[in-house]
Inverse folding.
């Protein structure tokens, strides 16, 4: 991305909201998104649905899908002549799926549809190449995988799309002269956090984006391989390197997610969040600073639970 396509934000949600609120949409215009989007990604669109009469439609994406082409075909089949924007996550926070955003962008543009990406978990996990992806808008967070402070984020607005997206505040200069900076009027900002995000970027660039992604995916693959070997364990995340990063969602049939979380904390002092994929699903994040031994510790607890189901099947 070029500097005039990037705006500093305070969160992924803010970046998604700027794009949503800035578009001129008419009653009946449709927004298409997956059924696994985060509230920060779909919330502004739902608000415009209530206020302006646009229509938000969702499609179900398998967890995991068979292929990138299957995902693209599902989304394309749902597009109508009224569809204006396709909203997807990269990755989806529920399943860890890396939506095939390049293929989705090419498909959406053939239909005259813009594509907006909730990339909250992408910055610091993946070697992002936004120009190559073809997306029109991409919003991400600083406090997650980038390891920056709370209240930090970035949003990308493709240069060709900026004239279609209004800013929230009046500017003294022509609205098309400033690039994405026209979206940056947000009132008071926590300057130490913003400056700290720059240090976080420098730190990760020194390691190398490709090195980080390779490490993240290696650890995630170790985890998925181990989970596959445990009877009764399901995985909601794709095994394809093209469609998975550092988020792995799994579930133990019949074991409430809270019990799995408690066992990991009690036995290994490891915290993992639950996933809304189903009543049993949990999510593991493997970053570059994690170790193969830590992955093995997670697997040992999951294996213990699977081998002692009766002790963990009752909700706590």
């Amino acid at each position: 991305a070029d500097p005039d396509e990037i705006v500093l934000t305070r969160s992924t949600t803010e970046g998604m909201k700027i794009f949503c609120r800035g578009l001129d949409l008419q009653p009946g215009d449709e927004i298409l998104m997956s059924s696994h989007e985060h509230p920060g990604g779909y919330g502004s669109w739902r608000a415009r649905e209530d206020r302006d009469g646009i229509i938000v439609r969702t499609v179900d994406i398998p967890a995991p899908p068979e292929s990138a082409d299957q995902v693209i075909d599902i989304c394309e089949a749902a597009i109508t002549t009224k569809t204006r924007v396709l909203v997807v996550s990269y990755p989806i926070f529920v399943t860890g799926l890396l939506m095939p955003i390049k293929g989705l962008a090419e498909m959406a543009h053939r239909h005259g549809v813009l594509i907006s990406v909730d990339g909250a978990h992408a910055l610091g996990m993946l070697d992002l190449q936004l120009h190559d992806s073809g997306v029109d808008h991409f919003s991400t967070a600083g406090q997650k995988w980038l390891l920056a402070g709370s209240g930090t984020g970035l949003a990308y607005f493709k240069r060709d799309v900026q004239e279609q997206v209004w800013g929230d505040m009046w500017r003294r200069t022509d609205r098309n002269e400033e690039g994405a900076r026209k979206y940056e009027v947000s009132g008071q900002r926590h300057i130490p956090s913003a400056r700290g995000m720059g240090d976080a970027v420098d730190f990760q660039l020194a390691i190398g984006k490709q090195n980080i992604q390779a490490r993240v995916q290696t650890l995630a693959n170790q985890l998925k391989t181990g989970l596959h070997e445990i009877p009764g364990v399901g995985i909601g995340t794709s095994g394809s390197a093209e469609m998975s990063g550092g988020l792995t969602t799994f579930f133990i049939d019949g074991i409430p997610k809270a019990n799995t979380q408690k066992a990991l904390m009690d036995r290994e002092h490891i915290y993992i969040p639950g996933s809304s994929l189903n009543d049993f699903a949990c999510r593991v994040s493997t970053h570059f600073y994690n170790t193969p031994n830590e992955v093995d510790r997670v697997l040992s607890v999951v294996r213990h639970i699977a081998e002692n189901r009766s002790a963990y099947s009752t909700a706590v």
